[in-house]
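It is worth pausing here to work through a concrete case rather than discussing structure prediction in the abstract. The textbook approach is simple: state the sequence, then state the predicted structure, then interpret. We follow exactly that order.
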Amino acid sequence: MLDTIDASTVRTWCRLALAALGQAREEIDALNVYPVPDGDTGTNLYLTLESAAVAVEEQYAGEGEPGLAAVVGAMARGALIGARGNSGVILAQLLRGMAEELSLGGEPERLRAALLRAADSAYQAVAEPVEGTLLTVAAAAAQAAAVGDGLADTADTAYRAARRALQQTPDQLDVLAEAGVVDAGGRGLVAILGALADAVSGQTPMGPLALRQELGLSLVDLPGCEGHERPPGLGHPAFEVIYLLDAPDEALPALRGRLAGLGDSLVIGGGDGLWNVHVHVDDAGAAVEAGVEAGRPYQIRITHFAEAAARAGERAGAEPQGRAVLSVVSGSGLAELCEQAGAAVLLADPDRPPASAELAEALRRCAAREVVLLLNDPELRAAAGAAADQLREEGVRIAVLPTRSPVQGLAALAVHENSRRFDEDVVAMTSAAGATRYAELAVAEGESWTMAGVCQAGDVLGLIDGDVAVIGADLLETGSTVLARMLAAGGELVTLVLGAGAPATLADQLVAHARRQRPEVDTVVFAGGQEAAPLLIGVE
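Step two, the predicted structure:
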């Protein structure tokens, strides 16, 4: 248990919070009825925090360990630059407030001050604060944490107070009570604060699944949610306008006044000359002109709410205009295999999984109306979901196949046929991937507890379907044991994909082993070139 927050703690917090929002993203989107029922709060929070997490990881790209001030500063700036939607800009301002305090130190009293400053900063960023929202949850967490005892207790107290405040949001905001839901932004903040409590305590992540079990926050469990439909949102302005703005602090009062007169849901977050401006208006041009008068607006995004909804309806009946498959792999050999099978490839850095923006850009480069996305890594599921949502808004039909290993992706590609209807093709590829058991060998970097016992640095780990099943002394011994266990459950085809560091003789030895055990099983060997795993195994 930590006594103070350091740079590593902030890094862990960002990772845990991003994972928590990734798991809860669709649920939070479904809760979104205020201020506009456009069902994107979970996605906006995820993208905002993803930008913060990427900025933090960049601090670790150079030599040496970054300091706390550098990491929290990067987190705040990353969130501000990547903030999406009303909730995203408020979250960025919350993180900025926390960073301003934590840059001075990570003691328990600093965390308490950081939570208070975060809530105050968020309220100041919103032109017309409304209770029963993310703001209320943030304030409740900060007030409760003020009497915390020690670092872990402070974080845990804030998290639990946020949960209680979230439960009360339908009593504070009529639109939530009518829909029978809690506030979507507040729900996201509870997940983020739960991740903070986990980061400072070292416990297993609380995360959204635990929240759902403890609080009953899913739509079907909330009173009055049967047959829930979002309110039509009549009377709201037509456009959402959001942009980054380079402007001096003294230009902000006039900008706030001008934008407040144009529309509602006005949030301006930031400081030190860089701002993120968000507003709902009927005259999008006037909102941008106000930014020009104040400074230099850029990365301007304008969304017409009615047209976005109409596009979603049109896509349901659109005729397909070309199909592509995008496969995410690491390793030049795997990339070549996928390309030979007709897929476009995103070659991923094994040390830095692609973020949603990178996935979205790769999907766009496919230039197809229908795209099947093969993840080949369970850690990419949340980022892929956010990327897919962006492309769907642009009229592209996306199917994300959550393949957990490249061998499952190869099995899916083997049955892919463009001549079939899209849904039929997706079903066939999903079935082929699901019928492929997968395993991999990895080398332990240090002592650790696993499902198979305690491993030491240098041990070879055999993972079957994602869990450590075998701990061995060398690649051949461990690979043979893993393969024998997999074939004991049956199989017709074994696929072996050799990593960059695997001995040249390993494949021949394992093929011979497979033939001795199951001579009727076919075996194929590929040079994958992946860095992380010396060997991938698939059994179909």
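Step three, interpretation. Residues 207-234, 311-320 have pLDDT under 50 and may be disordered. The longest strand covers residues 263-271.
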